[in-house]
UniProtKB/TrEMBL annotation:
InterPro entries attached to this UniProt entry: Calcineurin-like_PHP_lpxH (IPR024654), Metallo-depent_PP-like (IPR029052), Phosphodiesterase_MJ0936/Vps29 (IPR000979)
Record domain Calcineurin-like phosphoesterase: where: 16-164
Enzyme's top EC category: hydrolase
Annotated coiled-coil segments of the chain: none
Family: Belongs to the metallophosphoesterase superfamily. YfcE family.
GO molecular function: hydrolase activity; metal ion binding
Protein name: Phosphoesterase
EC number: 3.1.4.-
Required cofactor(s): a divalent metal cation
Alphabetically ordered keywords of this record: Metal-binding
Transmembrane segments: none
Pfam families: Metallophos_2
């Protein structure tokens, strides 16, 4: 089942998640790295926090995902904005997720996001290409998977996996991808 954007399904069963953002296809890479595709095919849900860049990237991920939740980013033009929301909300494994591309500067992020997403347990975001995993004072978990294709000033390109189930987010793991050669 592929779901994009606004969808709420109440289900507390454990679900394997792949969390990606800022894929920038085909400008930063022709396709996603093979380890990401392998993780996508094992996942119950794929979350993409925007900056796909071209519609074929969305279509390829839709085709290979059991379920897809995605938003558009600042580099996504009309074909993607027509299909994706700016903010997506979904319940997975008994947790309320929100997905958005940009959250503003790192300074004050937790407070701003708690104010903007008061009834959310986990906020997935992108834009910076910098992995982020913090919990705000009120309990909101903020996750940025970095980018699997454009590491910018980071030592590695990255993506996240996690399990959502029984109202808890567990097994959160940042995966570092090998540097491309050639």
């Amino acid at each position: 089942m592929v779901v994009i954007g606004q969808h709420r399904a109440v289900d507390s069963q454990p679900q394997r998640l792949v969390i990606i953002s800022d894929t920038h296809l085909p400008t930063r890479a022709r396709e996603l790295p093979e380890p990401v595709w392998a993780a996508v095919e094992r996942a119950d849900v794929v979350i993409h926090a925007g900056d796909w860049c071209e519609l074929p990237a969305l279509l390829a991920l839709q085709k290979r995902s059991r379920r897809l939740v995605g938003v558009y980013g600042n580099n996504d033009g009309p074909p993607l904005r027509e299909r994706l929301p700016e903010v997506a909300r979904v319940e997975l494994g008994g947790l309320r997720f929100a997905v958005v591309h940009e959250t503003g500067p790192a300074k004050g992020r937790e407070h701003r996001c708690e104010q903007r997403f008061p009834d959310t347990d986990v906020l997935v975001f992108g834009h910076s290409h910098i992995p982020w995993d913090t919990t705000a004072p009120g309990g909101l978990r903020l996750l940025n998977p970095g980018s699997p294709t454009d590491r910018r000033r980071q030592p590695h390109a990255t993506y996240l996996t996690a399990t959502a189930g029984n109202g808890a987010l567990t097994e959160v793991r940042l995966h570092e991808l090998p540097r491309r050669t050639g």
